[in-house]
């Protein structure tokens, strides 16, 4: 009868967020491993809990599959002598494969006949291969690994026991000083040491020992528990799936219970209550039938209902302590005015060389106004922008944000409303931190977007101006992320502002401030390099290839939308077969133009019709090109450049550019250089590896 | 159980586990980890087992003695064992039983918490231990100390004494906790809590503190260059405490913190390196002791 195989890795409590991924990997890796080893089986089940990762293989074959493999020998010319007898080479080959010359057959490969034998690879007993499973266990990847004791293995958490059974036989191996056996452990407090006699009994034995090894079952127990509480009390408990995933992986035997907090805490902003419950305590907030927050929570205990009153009381005490802190802060914070907090910002250094946060806020106000001006917003918006910028950081001085740092901006919005600020200002205070991650949402309002860009510009230009450019993996001020934020807002809001101009505003502002450590000379170049890299990063993220990126980012960085459009035109063009003559023509111009600085074309030196013609076409193209660029018609503009192709080919066919006559030579080079200047104003076309796609 | 008996119980328990019982270290610090008995001794290959109570100053947590849960100075019970024993979780849970906490009556959980002390270039992986939702212990396997890889790995248990006591004594207010018969935390600590808070938030001489930071930093470097590790480390601790006072006063921004932290970290890093080098010169004497 086919046997079943069980592997259980016993661990100190795994981080909840690792468990699902690890279980999936275990299933995947086990399948691949068995397939590679040619070991058949009926099915695979996996289990997990905070303290174990388990795989159960049903009905595993006793042996690896035996297979026949074709072994290729020498060519028949070598394998047989002129009389048709097998040579030494042929005999040697068959012997090597454990066969005789009687087993030889022939096949033709590419016109040459070779000799072959069929080789049987005998399957080894499964039992002898199972100890190799240690490699599967150690190959599981976790987001973060650690070492322990004197072990060299890096793993999510220390391995404390391993169950490895083939039927009722222990499969012998060792990992990090732990030897396999048939002993498992139940729930830390409710369970006991268990001897697993039969892999199929695993799940039941663990359940009796208060461990539910099936995570879906644990999840169901939690949901059922919550439903029971909902029904009994007429509550509504919204189940946040992320929280549920986490909670079910924090427990081996879940018991949901209801806890309460004092009604007076409901005067706190919901965000504060929810952050306290969800983020800090992993509780599910409770709502009434009509969706209002109620002073209750659902927590999940790791264990049964015994002495649940004590557990409830303990949890309530912890939440009460957190909320009384919050309540105290909330009341204290409202005793002062917004101006009080703004003034306090003068006591806080933003950055040693860039002054206080108050100084920063003053700069952000000015930047915000200038950006609003560039965007030609109406006067009311400009007023709101200025106020939002002024209030952008005041909440950092409140007790609440000091305690709940994740609520910066959120509390600013709340307090601004309480203090009677305009709704648009309140919202912008929260939004000006956005996007908070590379792919995070950008501000939803115009006012929020402007202040967000101004705040980030100030940090980037200020830090780089005092020499704090990010290096390698070091970016303590988050300048890269902030630059991406600026670029994303520009792109997604389709602002018609050149990136260089935008940063120019901030540079100008800093120059006028005459800060001691701000390097007015180097900042422009340092910043250009930094912005180029960030723009390149954004382009790369949207799938643009490296050489195109270089071509469109080499000059001054203009309007982001334009850069993206140019990149897409060039990316498409270079893959078009019909574009070959164009790029050949343009390429020749660009190459020769590098040989000169001359731009003065003197028509009196023209000798041939083709050079006169090229000059005439050039003048027309150049003027059309400029007009189309002005209108924002990039495709039209690039098409205009393409019309130079034929005259260029004509020119090269009939003129010797590097003529002996210096005057002629220089004049022709100057003509090409003029053309090249127009071409390069579209993009640095020389950077493009045109040839690679043909 | 009053606090005094809790401490005695923990001391007895960990003493029975062959830990050296140390006394608190006499330079201000924010956490038991910063005592050289943990930070320096966790470095290098020599085995180490220690337990001690550490008064820990967190100026920013001062609340004039008015907040029921916050203190300028609280107490940690610190256990450090290198290399980490295989049964350390069980040893820890037994210590809770010794304090009268029956795990069957409670919900005890190990919740992922990756601890990091950037000022000391120290990082570790482990958990917060939750007792009915309250964090009572920080349980950490050191992975890096002073920027050096921990090898072998030391495990650190940090019990929050007042937290645990408020649970054991079922008190909502930390000042109501009984320290020993007839004396509460209020009796002993209320006045210093108020005065330290007042000093920290209102009266501290910011200019002087900035100056002191710079001076301590210079002295630490100078002393280190002479190969005097322990005195140099004392000055690093002083830098750290001075930074905490400035931070609590609200005169260092989030952005600026990074710079100060980097300065302290650089000192801690070079001290860690020198400590291991000096121990190596001595032939890692405690390693030999273990072998005997």
From TrEMBL, chain A:
Tetramer of two alpha and two beta subunits. GO terms for biological process: arginyl-tRNA aminoacylation; glycyl-tRNA aminoacylation. GO terms for cellular component: cytosol. HAMAP family: Gly_tRNA_synth_beta. It comes from the Bacteria. Belongs to the class-II aminoacyl-tRNA synthetase family. Signal peptide: none annotated. Its EC number is 6.1.1.14. It is found in: Cytoplasm. It is an enzyme of class 6 (ligase). Residues 582-684 form the DALR anticodon binding domain. This is Glycine--tRNA ligase beta subunit. One of its GO terms (molecular function) is ATP binding. Pfam families: DALR_1 (PF05746), tRNA_synt_2f (PF02092). Transmembrane segments: none annotated. The keyword Amino-acid biosynthesis does not apply. Its main location: cytoplasm.
Automatic annotation (TrEMBL), chain B:
It catalyses: tRNA(Gly) + glycine + ATP = glycyl-tRNA(Gly) + AMP + diphosphate. GO terms for biological process: glycyl-tRNA aminoacylation. Pfam families: tRNA-synt_2e (PF02091). SUPFAM superfamilies: Class II aaRS and biotin synthetases. One of its GO terms (cellular component) is cytosol. Transmembrane segments: none annotated. GO terms for molecular function: ATP binding; catalytic activity, acting on a protein; glycine-tRNA ligase activity; transferase activity. It is an enzyme of class 6 (ligase). It is found in: Cytoplasm. InterPro entries: aa-tRNA-synth_II/BPL/LPL, Gly-tRNA-synth_heterodimer, Gly-tRNA_ligase_asu. Its EC number is 6.1.1.14. The keyword Transport does not apply. Its main location: cytoplasm. Keywords: Aminoacyl-tRNA synthetase, ATP-binding, Cytoplasm, Ligase, Nucleotide-binding, Protein biosynthesis. HAMAP family: Gly_tRNA_synth_alpha. Belongs to the class-II aminoacyl-tRNA synthetase family. Tetramer of two alpha and two beta subunits. This is Glycine--tRNA ligase alpha subunit. It comes from Ornithinibacillus bavariensis. The lineage of its organism: Bacteria, Bacillati, Bacillota, Bacilli, Bacillales.
């Amino acid at each position: 009868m086919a046997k079943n195989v069980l592997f259980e890795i016993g661990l100190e409590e795994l981080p909840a967020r690792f468990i699902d991924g690890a279980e999936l990997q275990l299933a995947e890796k086990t399948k691949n491993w068995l397939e590679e080893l040619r070991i058949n089986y009926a099915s695979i089940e996996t289990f997990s809990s905070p303290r174990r990762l388990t795989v159960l293989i049903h009905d595993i074959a006793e042996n690896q599959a035996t297979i026949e493999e074709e072994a290729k020998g020498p060519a028949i010319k070598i394998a047989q002598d002129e009389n048709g007898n097998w040579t030494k080479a042929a005999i040697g080959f068959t012997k090597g494969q454990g066969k005789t010359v009687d087993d030889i057959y022939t096949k033709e490969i590419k016109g040459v006949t070779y000799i072959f034998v069929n080789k049987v690879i005998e399957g080894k007993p499964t039992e002898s291969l199972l100890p190799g499973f240690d490699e599967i266990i150690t190959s599981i990847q976790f987001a973060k690994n650690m070492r322990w004791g004197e072990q060299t293995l890096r793993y999510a958490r220390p391995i404390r026991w391993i169950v490895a059974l083939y039927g009722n036989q222990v499969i012998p191996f060792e990992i990090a000083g732990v030897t396999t056996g048939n002993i498992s452990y139940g729930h830390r407090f409710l369970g006991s040491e268990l001897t697993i006699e039969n892999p199929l009994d695993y799940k039941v034995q663990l359940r009796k020992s208060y461990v539910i090894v099936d995570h879906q079952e644990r999840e169901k127990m939690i949901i059922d528990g919550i439903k029971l509480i909902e029904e009994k009390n007429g509550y509504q408990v919204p189940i946040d799936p992320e929280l549920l995933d986490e909670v079910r992986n924090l427990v081996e035997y879940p018991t949901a219970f209801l806890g309460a907090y004092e009604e007076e805490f409901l005067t706190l902003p919901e965000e504060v209550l929810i952050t306290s419950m969800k983020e800090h305590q992993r509780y599910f907030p409770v709502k009434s039938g009509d969706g209002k927050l109620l002073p209750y929570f659902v927590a999940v205990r790791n264990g049964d209902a015994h002495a649940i009153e004590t557990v409830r009381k303990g949890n309530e005490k912890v939440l009460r302590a957190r909320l009384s802190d919050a309540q105290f802060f909330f009341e204290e914070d409202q005793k002062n005015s917004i101006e009080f907090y703004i003034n306090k910002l003068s006591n806080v250094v933003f950055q040693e060389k860039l002054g206080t946060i108050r100084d920063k806020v003053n700069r952000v106000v000015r930047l915000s106004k200038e950006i609003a001006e560039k965007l030609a917003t109406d006067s009311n918006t400009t007023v709101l922008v200025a106020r939002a910028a002024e209030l952008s950081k005041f909440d950092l001085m409140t007790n609440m944000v000091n305690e709940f740092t994740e609520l910066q901006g959120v509390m600013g919005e709340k307090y601004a409303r309480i203090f009677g600020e305009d709704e648009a200002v309140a919202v912008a205070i929260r939004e000006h931190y956005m996007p908070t991650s590379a792919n995070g949402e950008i501000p939803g309002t115009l006012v929020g977007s402007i202040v967000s860009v101004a705040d980030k510009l100030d940090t980037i230009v200020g830090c780089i101006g005092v020499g704090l450019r990010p290096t390698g993996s070091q970016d303590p001020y988050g300048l890269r992320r902030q630059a991406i934020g600026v670029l994303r807002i520009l792109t997604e809001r389709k602002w018609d502002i050149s990136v260089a101009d935008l940063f120019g505003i901030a540079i100008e502002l800093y120059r006028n401030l005459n800060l001691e450590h701000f390097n007015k000379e180097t900042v422009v170049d340092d910043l250009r390099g930094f912005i180029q890299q960030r723009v390149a990063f954004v382009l790369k993220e949207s799938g643009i290839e490296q050489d195109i990126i270089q071509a469109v980012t080499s000059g001054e960085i203009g309007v982001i939308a334009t850069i993206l459009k140019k990149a897409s035109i060039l990316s498409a063009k270079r893959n078009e077969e019909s574009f070959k003559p164009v790029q050949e023509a343009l390429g020749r111009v660009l190459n020769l133009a590098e040989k000169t600085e001359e731009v003065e074309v003197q028509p009196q030196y023209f000798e041939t019709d083709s050079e006169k013609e090229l000059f005439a076409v050039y003048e027309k193209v150049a003027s059309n090109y400029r007009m189309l660029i002005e209108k924002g018609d990039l495709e039209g503009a690039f098409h205009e450049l393409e019309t130079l192709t034929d005259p260029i080919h004509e020119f090269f066919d009939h003129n010797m550019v590097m003529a002996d006559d210096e005057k002629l030579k220089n004049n022709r080079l100057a003509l090409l250089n003029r053309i090249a200047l127009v071409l390069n104003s579209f993009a640095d076309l020389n950077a493009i590896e045109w040839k690679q796609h043909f | 159980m009053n606090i005094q008996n809790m401490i005695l119980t923990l001391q007895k328990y960990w003493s029975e586990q062959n830990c050296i019982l140390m006394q608190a270290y006499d330079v201000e610090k924010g956490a038991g980890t910063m005592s050289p008995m943990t930070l320096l001794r966790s470095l290098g290959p020599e085995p180490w087992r220690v337990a001690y109570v550490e008064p820990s100053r967190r100026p920013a947590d001062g609340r004039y003695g008015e907040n029921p849960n916050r203190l300028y100075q609280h107490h940690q019970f610190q256990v450090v064992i290198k290399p980490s024993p295989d049964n350390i979780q069980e040893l820890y849970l037994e210590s809770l039983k010794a304090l009268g906490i029956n795990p069957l009556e409670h919900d005890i959980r190990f919740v992922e918490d990756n601890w990091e002390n950037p000022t000391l270039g120290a990082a570790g992986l482990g958990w917060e231990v939750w007792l009915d939702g309250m964090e009572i212990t920080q349980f950490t396997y050191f992975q890096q100390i002073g920027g050096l890889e921990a090898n072998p790995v030391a495990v650190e248990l940090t019990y929050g004494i007042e937290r645990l006591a408020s649970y054991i004594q079922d008190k909502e207010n930390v000042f109501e906790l009984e320290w020993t018969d007839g004396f509460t935390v209020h009796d002993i600590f209320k006045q210093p809590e108020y005065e330290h808070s007042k000093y920290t938030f209102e009266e501290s001489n910011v200019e002087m503190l900035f100056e002191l930071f710079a001076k301590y930093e210079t002295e630490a470097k100078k002393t280190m260059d002479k190969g005097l590790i322990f005195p140099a480390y004392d000055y690093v601790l002083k830098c750290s405490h001075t930074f905490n006072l400035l931070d609590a006063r609200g005169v260092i921004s989030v952005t600026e913190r990074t710079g100060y932290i980097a300065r302290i970290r650089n000192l801690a890093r070079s001290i860690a390196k020198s400590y291991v080098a000096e121990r190596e010169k001595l032939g890692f004497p405690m390693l030999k002791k273990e072998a005997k």
